[in-house]
Amino acid sequence: MIIMKSEATKEEVASVVKEIKKFGLKADVSRGEFRTVIGLIGDERRADFSHFATLPGVKEAFMVESPYKLISKEYGKRFDGEGERRQIRVGDVTIGGDELAIIAGPCTVEGKSQLFRIAEEVKKAGAQILRGGIFKPRSSVHSFQGLGANGREGAEEALRWLYEAGQRFEMPVVTEVRGEAQIDLVASYADIIQVGARNMYNQDLLASVARAGKPVFFKRHFGAGIDEFLSFAEYMAAEGNKDIILCERGILPLGKGKNYTRYTLDLSAIPAIQKETYLPVVADPSHATGRRDLIFNMSCAAVAAGASGLMIEAHYDPSEAMVDGMQMITPDELKEVISACRKIHKLVAAKNEAKVVNG
Amino acid sequence: MIIMKSEATKEEVASVVKEIKKFGLKADVSRGEFRTVIGLIGDERRADFSHFATLPGVKEAFMVESPYKLISKEYGKRFDGEGERRQIRVGDVTIGGDELAIIAGPCTVEGKSQLFRIAEEVKKAGAQILRGGIFKPRSSVHSFQGLGANGREGAEEALRWLYEAGQRFEMPVVTEVRGEAQIDLVASYADIIQVGARNMYNQDLLASVARAGKPVFFKRHFGAGIDEFLSFAEYMAAEGNKDIILCERGILPLGKGKNYTRYTLDLSAIPAIQKETYLPVVADPSHATGRRDLIFNMSCAAVAAGASGLMIEAHYDPSEAMVDGMQMITPDELKEVISACRKIHKLVAAKNEAKVVNG
Amino acid sequence: MIIMKSEATKEEVASVVKEIKKFGLKADVSRGEFRTVIGLIGDERRADFSHFATLPGVKEAFMVESPYKLISKEYGKRFDGEGERRQIRVGDVTIGGDELAIIAGPCTVEGKSQLFRIAEEVKKAGAQILRGGIFKPRSSVHSFQGLGANGREGAEEALRWLYEAGQRFEMPVVTEVRGEAQIDLVASYADIIQVGARNMYNQDLLASVARAGKPVFFKRHFGAGIDEFLSFAEYMAAEGNKDIILCERGILPLGKGKNYTRYTLDLSAIPAIQKETYLPVVADPSHATGRRDLIFNMSCAAVAAGASGLMIEAHYDPSEAMVDGMQMITPDELKEVISACRKIHKLVAAKNEAKVVNG
Amino acid sequence: MIIMKSEATKEEVASVVKEIKKFGLKADVSRGEFRTVIGLIGDERRADFSHFATLPGVKEAFMVESPYKLISKEYGKRFDGEGERRQIRVGDVTIGGDELAIIAGPCTVEGKSQLFRIAEEVKKAGAQILRGGIFKPRSSVHSFQGLGANGREGAEEALRWLYEAGQRFEMPVVTEVRGEAQIDLVASYADIIQVGARNMYNQDLLASVARAGKPVFFKRHFGAGIDEFLSFAEYMAAEGNKDIILCERGILPLGKGKNYTRYTLDLSAIPAIQKETYLPVVADPSHATGRRDLIFNMSCAAVAAGASGLMIEAHYDPSEAMVDGMQMITPDELKEVISACRKIHKLVAAKNEAKVVNG
After folding, report:
1. What ipTM describes this predicted complex?
2. Which residue, C293, C282, C333, is CA-closest to C124?
């Protein structure tokens, strides 16, 4: 891997590529907004990295085994001044900071009054960021696809409601893009752009979303190993956008017999990921369990495992929700969750700080 | 679910939607090229389907539980004149017909001479359709992404080679699109458009690919159940494109210990899928196993399980391939595979015919 | 299902069986120590349960769909006077009570001094029950199988050390039986008998262990769904032994790529199981993660999820341990874990009590 | 690993153990019937194997990484004169030979007439070995557990029927042992002893079964990786019994959504296993799929994948079977399966032989 200086010229890049070819290797040039990274294709052991390091325009040259380099803790500390945890600021809220970040709202924006009422109530309950789905990914073409399916105007109207609810109740807002065609529109209204679990492997979408320049809320696919999850986050980092909030939202449950939860919330992935990368991890117990009666325990557990935040679906009347009513909690229940989780977060953080000091 | 007549007017559709709302339900209108399908959102049991069936423009109204209806065997027989297996014709080749369809070629198009040499050799070995990757989905941004990454011109040049190789050696060609932006370009050169496993859940891409009007080679995601796989194929059928070739290419292997194969080729999925839908299923033992030494056995096994075809990666010198050399076989080995598989296909088909006659 | 009165005679049982056969069904008579349960085999809907209920010796007759009935919360409340959580008392310790129960000790008993030193140190750190493996289940016949492999005398010596360490440091002790031949010996020294994950499906062993009359520490197999786990616990309950401590110790990790943890600790299983049965659930983060650096977070998470206790492997010098050193923590680390977990347990329990009061 | 000569004395073994300890390692002595194997515990790299090789009684000393050594193809060829495939002879039948071996019969022995009728019919259909379950492993204590549950006399009567049916229709018989207490009884009537999938990890049972001296039919657990499966087969080989027939019977299906098959028949495991060990592999499509309508295709596929045999459940009237009727086929269907499979077996074997000659 060769990292070019930010001021490197095209000619310098071309000249490095030429040198790479002399070793019988090919070069894969990734031009991000802030830097150009040149990957070596083929058996890197043939190459002389100390030679590459002396070429004009080259910041650094080294052999990499990991598919996620730019977001790794080690790399972040050496080259980007990253600490243990990157603090991603959105409005007045920080994800990855001292305080637990709470994202809440309806699964799906169904209308203005529904959204405003929920926004008001989750704000009172202690939420800091508002969520609401407009472009809904659905397993069945015969199911409700969200207001985003109502043409560009319908989608824009719903996005405007979300923006206005955020303004009114002083919360940054997050919503999902499902395809490249929606990025510009979503980016003009949302503070954070969500990439859903089913799009985790969609590298073209990831690169485009990253280039929109807003923080990205990036959900792990339910069939993805940790290394894949981080490797695809790297696609965004390679575009120069490192404001990536990772989200654990459940993996495939064990295959046989009745499923007691919709997915398996993979909580040991949280501390395991936090050892690998400085990017903060948030948990989504709502989609993971699909069960309202497990949200309290699994929220507490996620925070105890080291999550920097939670994304929780809430509704004043879960039975009335058009999508996923089974997994939503009321604002009152949310308040209780937030209260317990903030205490647990402090308990766990205290230990982590102690560790940092000692270690 | 309400199926409108093909000649139904917009007003008739609007009027049906109005009626649906009277039952406290919402309507999700999917306008395909050939028909409009109206999905009911909410508790369908509240609705009076016999009433809907009498409305002007309505072809049929019924309650659906399955998320894949249009591609189901039962529906195909009743409304579309589909038989046991849809025969998808591409040039002189039929997928789903009496003869086993063999798709072969390199994992990745690396250059014109590489492609032409492989095309010539797989043709001689008995292949009928040529494959070659240009837009490569890769786990790592630091890996070679295919010639499609070389800007529009580089991509178009590689696509032209593929087209010319197909013309020269009389084989239709198939290649993958990875994002919506590539569809027009790919559709103007390829006879069949492939949607890779990682894009199986990408409903926006599926709808756009379907609208390109060419047969689609649709790979199952390695974490997807059969019902999900068929539900996402339904997204394409809902756009009026039923020339969908399903491809089983391996699911997540068991989680612990060393993986002896890259994925687990889920062969019982093949006959299980064939009981559900008239769409033909093809197997890809190359990506599933990732092992050249297992291709012969797993190809034979896939055909014995009822596959209508095979997609196999081949290279005159597997050790030289830039991507996935471990799983490629030589043209000579391919010939041997095809010979055994054609015999097994006849053996198995004979039984299935006997069954149809008796049953 | 027909539950006989505890004083029912053999003749009464025989007569019920005869009646069952009149309905074209077969009977499966399970004679537990305290009750006889007669299962109906075949289509139960043919039978007249109100008739059975009137037969002499019959306590109750009803149709069952669940494979775990005797340990279900509903049944426990109706017939056995069970509350939300069964409190299993062992010496001065209660599992399932107000206080979190901590089981700690070495993975494997290696010698008397090793065991005594660890026992002393974990006791000081706050542990209440001592664990130590003597009959070790191992994947490879070529690995160390524990001191239990040293013939009956060697095994008995190790068991005696365990017993003495328990006496000396005032902790009940738990150790595993791997085969039926070891039950009597183990039962004569241990306060709690452990059945390991790999023996979860071993119904003959379960029945025999249950009959030994001591509390059983029952680990979930890494491939078992929750319903299977509970169904096999039912094998022990059917023998009249309901002092069963369920243990979640990790399920198969996702199949592809590098495993960052040995197994996936399935924490949402804990509250899900606690909705089904009154039996208490304990978590084992040591075997689940296989990583010392994740024990703190995953212990806290397990307790937050609702665990009634923890089983944690500890060693004064993890690097010296013969088996599983990678996953052991030191007594100092254990103390820190226990301190945080006791606080989280109180926080979470407070909410659960509030719930019970309100609900 | 140190292999002692078969004539090595106890003193020689003790002396080797002493030498091992000098290197700071421990020794695990496995005394099989035919050989003693000494495993080294600890970091083997500390040891001097060339020194061990010179000690009296030592046949061979080397470092091993694989947990399955004795059954590996490489070891078999070097020390035991094993070829590509071990041929296990039972009566007149050979498993692992030129001809496909067909094992068929009812899931469960329900009575003498049922068994005899099925035996007669499967024999006519072409089966060579008769199966019939007597000690049934069941998920629920409330389900029928087989005639083996009717006390020793009931069990022995059923075993005698099985033996007599085998004699009458000239087929060796195979039945399952579920616990150690049943081994002697089963071994006195059965030609092959089956260890079910749920007991795959039961190392105490495996050692005892192996010592009974009869061929073992060994089923892979549905959650076991290939390396675990072979490692536990090694437990039997370490007792000197290498007449082990491996059986692939399906692994856990993918976790979400409806299961179209009960398990996932892991057919690529068959050729993968055959590259590792000389032991023959048989497939059980009945338990794997749980669907009668998939048996034909999956039997053919298993043989195409390289299986040396098949175990298939059959019943003259599947709807009448007490257990697993959904997955049984009729003798007529069995005949059709056998006919197609024998042809495929020849086709595939021809290629393998060609390979051996060339390779």
Report:
1. 0.89
2. C333
